[in-house]
Design goal:
Length: 232
């Protein structure tokens, strides 16, 4: 049986930043693959390259060397406009802070990115309702962010990330601002959604207990990707 094509592949990634103290090497010959429906952890200390790898994978930054493939297509050298189009259609983002629009309710926060992506309002509303239901938030659909708890706000942000039916979700400390009990339930909702939707998820986290619940864990050492580990 042939190996499936990864939805995301990074090969030979190099990233160096210029600082007052000189060149700062963040990623050295980094590589990884991500497949549909799996939730993969990205673990390493601050400065190890987690955020840089996420930014490169999400087409927010270009590597200094190496290649980025989406669905087997080399997208490394695409124009900014082409990269923006791919981000809208293929990639969802979840951050530590929810970044919801405060003047809109939960439902509209999920509808808006769909409208920007060209979806009809009728279909966007139906999809928002479906995603809110999957997050257990049907009764909170018309509440603004300030009327929601921290966990509820992050569930809305997760639902928003899935709104345009991406193939990849990139999450940077998605539960880092929550208490342990809320973090656990929010991560469960996130991982259930990724698997149910068949979306590949790459999750940067400092929470080792959370990482152990993922399908695989990618670790860093000296700015290299050092290990793929099955979750304990």
């Amino acid at each position: 049986m042939s190996k499936p094509t990864p939805v995301l592949a990074l090969t030979g990634i190099e990233r160096t930043y210029k600082t007052e103290a000189g060149a700062l090497n963040v990623l050295k010959d980094a590589g990884m693959e991500l497949f549909p429906g799996e939730v993969v952890g990205l673990v390493g200390p601050s400065g190890s390259g987690k955020s840089s790898l996420l930014h490169i994978a999400g087409l927010l930054e270009k590597p200094d060397a190496g290649q980025v493939f989406l669905d087997g297509r080399d997208v490394t050298a695409l124009s900014d406009r082409e990269r923006t189009g791919l981000r809208r259609s293929m990639i969802g983002f979840v951050y530590q802070f929810h970044h919801l629009l405060p003047e809109f309710d939960a439902r509209e926060n999920i509808v808006l990115p769909q409208l920007i992506n060209g979806q009809s309002r009728r279909i966007a509303l139906a999809e928002a309702d479906r995603l809110l239901a999957s997050m257990g938030l049907t009764q909170r659909a018309q509440h603004q962010p300030a009327q929601l708890s921290g966990g509820e706000q992050q569930r809305v942000a997760i639902a928003r990330a899935f709104a345009n039916k991406p193939k990849i979700i990139l999450a940077d400390e998605p539960t880092g601002n929550l208490d342990p009990a809320t973090s656990d339930s929010v991560f469960q909702a996130f991982s259930n959604a990724a698997r149910d939707e068949g979306v590949a998820a790459l999750v940067a986290t400092h929470n080792l207990a959370l990482a152990e619940r993922m399908d695989r864990v990618l670790t860093f050492q000296d700015h290299h990707v050092t290990a793929w580990q099955p979750a304990a």
